[in-house]
Amino acid sequence: MKTIETDVVVIGGGATGAGILRDCALRGIKAILVERDDIANGTTGRNHGLLHSGARYAVTDSHSAKECIKENRILKNIASHCVEKTDGLFLTLPEDDYSFQQTFIQACAEAGIETENLTRNQALKLEPNANPEMLGAVRVPDGTLDPFRLTSANILDAVEHGAKLMNYTRVTSLVIEQGEVRGVNCLDMKTGQPVTLRSRQVVNAAGIWGQQIAEYADLSIKMFPAKGSLLIMDYRINSMVLNRCRKPADADILVPGDTISLIGTTSRKVPYEDIDNIKVDSDEIDILIREGEKLAPILGQSRVLRAYCGVRPLISVDGDESGRNISRGIVIRNHAETDSLPGLVTVAGGKLMTYRLMAEMTTDVVSKNLELKTCCTTAETKLPGASPSKKTAATSISVPINASARYRHGERADQFLKDDALSKAVICECEMITRGEIEYAIEQLNAHSLVDLRRRTRLGMGPCQGEVCACRAADVLQTTLKKQGRETNIAEDLNEFLQSRWKGVLPVLWGDALREADFTYWTYQGLLGASSLEAFSRTKINPDTVSPKISLETEV
Amino acid sequence: MKFDSLIIGGGLAGLVCGIRCAQAGLKTGIVSRGESGLAFSSGTIDLLGMDQQQKLLSDPFAGIEKLLFELPEHPYGKVGLTAIRDALSWFQTLSCEMKIPYTHRKDEKNQNRITALGALRPTYLSPATMTHLPIAGSLPDLRRVAVVNIEGFRDFQPELACHNLKCLPEFTDIEVISISLKLPDEFISNRDTNAMRSVELSRQLDNDTTISLLAEKLKIAVGKADLVLMPSVLSQTYGAERLAQLSKLSGLRISELATLPPSLPGLRLSERLQQHFHRLGGLMISGDKVQSGTIEQGKIQSILTHGNGQMALNAEQVVLASGSFMSGGLVADRHCIREHIFNLDVNTQSPRTEWANQKFLNGKAHAFASFGVVTDPHMRAVKDGKTIGNLYCIGSVLGHAQPVEEGSAGGIAISTGWAAAENIIRKISTNKENRHVR
Amino acid sequence: MSVNLALLDTTFDMCIKCTVCTTKCPVAEIQPDYPGPKQSGPDGERWRMKGEDFYDEALKYCTNCKRCEVACPSGVEIGSIIQKAKARSGRHKPKIRDYILSHTDLMGKVATPVAPIVNMVTKIKPVRVLMDKILDIDGRPSLPTYSWQTFRQWFKKEAPDQSVFKRQITFYHGCYINSNDTTVGKDLVSVLNAMNIGVQLLKKEKCCGVPLIANGFMDKAQSNAKLNTEQFREALEGDSECVISTSSSCSMTIRDEYHSLLEVDNRELVNRIFFFNTFLVKEFEKGNLPDMKPVNIKIAYHSPCHLIRVGGVVFTLEILRRIPGVELHMLDQRCCGQAGTYGFKKENYDTSQAIGAPIFDQIDSINPDYVVTDCEACKMQVESSTNYKVLHPLSVLARALGVSK
User: Fold this and answer.
1) CA distance to A39, B158, C167, per residue, from B228 (Å)
2) Span A153-206, pLDDT tens digits
3) Among A283, A306, A329, where does a domain finish?
4) How many domains in chain C?
5) Residue A472 sits at the chain B interface (C-beta within 8 Å)
6) pLDDT of residue A541 exceeding 60
7) Is A123 inside any structural domain?
């Protein structure tokens, strides 16, 4: 059996795991991250992508609010290509209690969050698509944060500092020797081969799935899963983050994320056994649209592109029934101290916004356990992509290609924005992704499949949901992998990609989304006869008993 | 403005119906909002490729006979087998007149079209530019097949097609290779092949010099092959002629594959049909769309278009050929499916959670594909349970078919379009005679 | 960037990426630097919401012929999306040349008093070379000639005769008829008089705005739209049944684009603003159809892009078919390449000629007595690029009625 030695194994490829991997690498600690699927495929990739200012928590949870505003300022510096400084508005609508605004402003001030009180007209001038019936608004330094890009940039930096990513590697058990955790046993999900990673420390950063990891060591960490559903609009219907100026409730945040807008979320308790099988319910969709229209009335007339849901990884600390009032605080357990099980550290709770802080705190514990004296530099060191570009684009590269590539990859776009016809060929027309960018994502960012490419580039995330680009990208993937001597069943991969797109469209199948689906169905089945292919007809996935891996594909 | 017959929708069904009416000397108009599904179609005419149990059909007519028994409300049920045969033979004659001949196998069986993805799909009528495989049995004359692309052309993936063809049981003993041909820049007006779609590339290839060069390159790159499969990029107007030229010059048997949209074989058919309609004196109202109609005494009295509120269009007989969702004939909101021009009765009241399958592509039809308007046995529309006497519905706006899965879109368009036209011609001539007698 | 969506054309939301618009764009066919209607229109609009950095100056190549809109099965107003984006973000500032070419009413005012001189001068080779060098107005196409007497001046003498008719309409003549070629205006008056309808003019009128929109003078276009709409309202509150225009581009603009593109609300008036062909067909069908004599001419009919866009070609055909002795040949529905002022510009001349080439060849092969079209820009292009004379359908009708001027 294959065995690999390292200092630290990090379980879980979400933002937190990636942040820990990077933090270890920057401190000179050898580390490997194992992820059963792909990076940012769990809760990390299934939220608003909101760069909180902390204002949302100011009234109810001032500790979180303070953490948020601190990390907000750090991320604007170290991850500038993952962040858009849009600012946000907290709207008071006629149905809301206007006096809450003063409480809110006061709480923000206490947390150190700058606010600006705006009249209705001032707010409409800044965000013309906000509800004109608002009574007033408060401006706060909210922004947007792309979770895929953020995770990928952390991994990239870690790898460039000697760390290793093993995605599609599932932990099957912990290696426990003489009452000490000494590594993990895994299964390579692509080849089916077992592999053992031996290490001095194992970090359980698997989020909601961390409960299962803990169970491998007979430890009990009780998670409190709450499902949140969101809708993706076809285009950016607002340019500032819109919130309701009231206590947090359902569907009251509208975030402009890259080319789209997101409305969410709902909050529904789900049994832990169901976390891999959650679905967006049709009544949730109706709530999201009803509430979303109150923030920006045009939402009701715009095409909904997809629906998706994620599970909040909250740790149950009291008997709260809704899952909304549970502390979002960071929980770190050094099992050497709490359970007399050295070698294992669990990190849970927190939120995307505080991933870096969680990573810092966790790595501090790991470092202490390893008896090293290191210090964290992640708050100052820019992520790859966040530095200014030294090159100017070749004039033959069109404006939208250049601007889109730089928007997504920052200065790293220099590596693939080349002046040759083949590399600047546009593969995904909705999101302006070139062949060069796709090759870069396969070669530099560990993409193995079309779905992986989507997370690293936005392939297939536009209005056509992959109709135009799926076959084109499959061709690039097949050719590039072949060059690297890697084999893949490309037809199967194409099927999985189309199916993963379909999962998100299915709950919102009306209007133009249905027209689009009708067109895609006509093209892939009527014109290309896809389903008669063995790779498509083979019922690898039974839709009625969804396997965990596939259910996870209900994502952005 | 007054018409004898006015058709809403300029896709295959609408054009067939319009041409047949114009042939009979009726003053015929077609209101067409944009290009139709033909622009994304294979260019072949499917009749019935699969039965209701998703089994491949070798004999489409036997299949239709069975279908009429199992599912009498199917659009074919309103036309009947004899009329379907008449319509197809009329269409074949028309295709010859339009100089884009469509033929079927001598034994009137289905044939397998090779798709650009390297899959097989049953079809019936085919233009001369494509070579098809028999539905059953081995392929004795094929030993080596070459899949060829023009280097840089994004909308055809030879490696992917090659991979899939090799997986087909029919191709077990056949060698399949993929080749990419680079054309020198000066032969394609220094254009970048990586930025072109099929139609754009075809404009660069549509001349004798480039075809000769292509033939030379093809000969060298392919060597010996029993069949060369190429994306359909040769010419938008003279596809068959250019393909024959290339075959002759290279000495190779070449078949074209309809690519990802836009699809040239479909566009060619659409263009020829439109030209023919114009030549017959048909009036095409493009750039506008029908907004509503007034219905009185069980008849459509007049039609209003979106862009022209000043003059209603009047016609003795009206035909609804507005297509399904993609073309906008049917619309869906969060709660229901509607036919939005006349608000006709549709064949479903199901909630949106029942409109489609969990799996996108696995050979099972999505429910939404079978939604459509309800008609009387003569294909006349029904609103609030009452027949509208002068409104015929044809093509994919009709319900109860599964055009994509059963492979029947072309056959339904042609047979319902033709049959409605025949009804209209009969009615109008009777009316004229009656007026004459009086 | 904050874009007020209520003021924006959000039809791009309906685009299903079917790509069919790209097969019909006459500019993309010829000009490789133009990214085509899909990328420039609905695709681009989504990125442009992210900021000005995503605006591509190559949008300037769009002629706003609107063939993409006709092809679109989804109702996306691709041409309008592109025009609005140009107006919002275009860094390409209009040149003095664009000012001259687009301010057609102002130029007419300046030129008509000295028309013979202007006409002569703009035909002189060295002058054209200078215009070409200094103004980037291409030296090859013939520029519009100016009439020595404006249509309005001519009409002053006619006006008293018009009041004898019980039925009255108001004629929006536009710039070309007023300053360049008054024939079509005079023919309209004769034809309508033959149908017992009197003609009035608006108290004042401005250019409809179509060349201003194409050249990026959106503010000016909007102020013209406001003035014209006020004038229409006033005329229609008086004894005029309706307003009639004889130019397909003016007609599309004053009817459709004032509201959809220039944000001037004219919705309550739209149904009383007619392109001549719709009005005539309506009258004919009501029985107001004067006797016609056979004209015995062979004509090749070219459908202007903007008439196709509004679905109006059939009504012109209906008129032509009712004229005895017309041998009608339909030219393929392609753009002639002129697209208003586009073909006059030096940087566009070759593109413009290449776009029109198939039409010119087809005309040659038909060899008609006349080419007939409803648009003055198409007329200029065809007359400049072929040896055929171009008539307006009204002029053919006037001949048949024996009232031709």
Assistant:
1) 42, 11, 70
2) 999 999 999 999 999 999 999 999 999 999 999 999 989 999 999 999 999 999
3) A306
4) 2
5) yes
6) no
7) yes
